[in-house]
Amino acid sequence: MSQAGTLKLASFNINGIKARLPRLLEWLEETRPQVACLQEIKTQDEGFPAEAFEKIGYKAIWHGQKGFNGVAILADGEQPVEVQRGLEGDPDDAHSRYLEADVFGVRVVCIYLPNGNPQPGPKFDYKLRWMERLRTRMDAIWAEEVPALVLGDYNVIPHDRDIWDKRAMADDALMQPASRDAYARLLGDGWTDAIGLHHPRGGIWTFWDYQAGAWPRDHGFRIDHALLSPELADRLVESGVDKAYRGREKASDHAPVWVRLRA
Q: Which InterPro entries does the UniProt record give (predicted)?
């Protein structure tokens, strides 16, 4: 269908923005989303390559952290207006995992949800607490009745159909009942999983490990999601995964996910 009159918003766990910058710029120029949410930029704020994005027309806000985590929101020709960075509810949480902005008339939330491994243990407990804090913030956004989209790496495989072999990661934090239940509660609150809606039979992956020949064997799973508020779900045209970018030289282990909305 024609792309005129639509708004494309995407998410890409880039797995190190400095190491993957050529691939990231390539993807932006070739697919040209109006908004791109990035995760695992793995750089301090002062090391973020804003100038490289400005050269191709993107303006950015970012929330960095040395060597780990880190999120950013890029917009094509428009400056994202920051609403919030970080989640409330845990004053000791210093991880850079949450960034929220208004851009193109949409509330865009970029998240990098904790992995939670090994489980059980403190890292898994942190993951579940973080998901509950996220739900609280999403409830507050819902109450504002703004068109909103929560994009990013959720580190949750929602269903068995979202992984190449459910036995492969049965003990992993990404597939635990508590992780899946926390994700399901977000959908139960009324948010729409765009990729899941358009691919109800599953088999759509967003991540392929660097190990064990996962990419050439297509042994992947879906952990990058786009959740839409009712105001945006009504405008949803299509959604997908830019799978081919996972196969390029020095690629991230994730592929970008995207949604297209009626403007």
A: AP_endonuc_1, Endo/exonu/phosph_ase_sf, Endo/exonuclease/phosphatase, ExoIII-like
| Local structure of residue 47 (DSSP, 8 states) | G
Q: Return the DSSP state at 24.
A: H
The 10s digit of each residue's pLDDT in 224-247 is 999 999 999 999 999 999 999 999
Residues of the chain short of pLDDT 50, as ranges, are 1-2
Q: Which residues pair with 226 in a beta bridge?
A: 151
Closest of 5, 84, 26 to residue 248, by C-alpha = 26
Tokens of 2: 């024609």
The one catalytic residue among 153, 162, 193, 224: 153
Task: Give per-residue pLDDT as tens, 171-188.
Answer: 999 999 999 999 999 999
Catalytically annotated residue among 58, 76, 98, 112:
112
CA dist 106 and 220 (Å) reads: 31
User: What is the H or E stretch that residue 195 is in?
Assistant: helix 194-198
**Half-sphere exposure at residue 42, Cβ-oriented, CA atoms within 13 angstroms:** 13
Quick one: pLDDT at residue 3? 74
Residue 210 annotated to the active site: no
In the block, tokens 């993957």 appear at 20
- The verdict on whether 153 is a catalytic residue reads yes
Domain at 6-262, CATH class: alpha beta
Question: In angstroms, how far is CA 36 from the centroid of its own chain?
Answer: 9
Q: How far apart are the first and last CA of the chain?
A: 14
Residue 56 DSSP class? T
Q: Are strands 98-103 and 35-39 parallel, antiparallel or unpaired?
A: unpaired
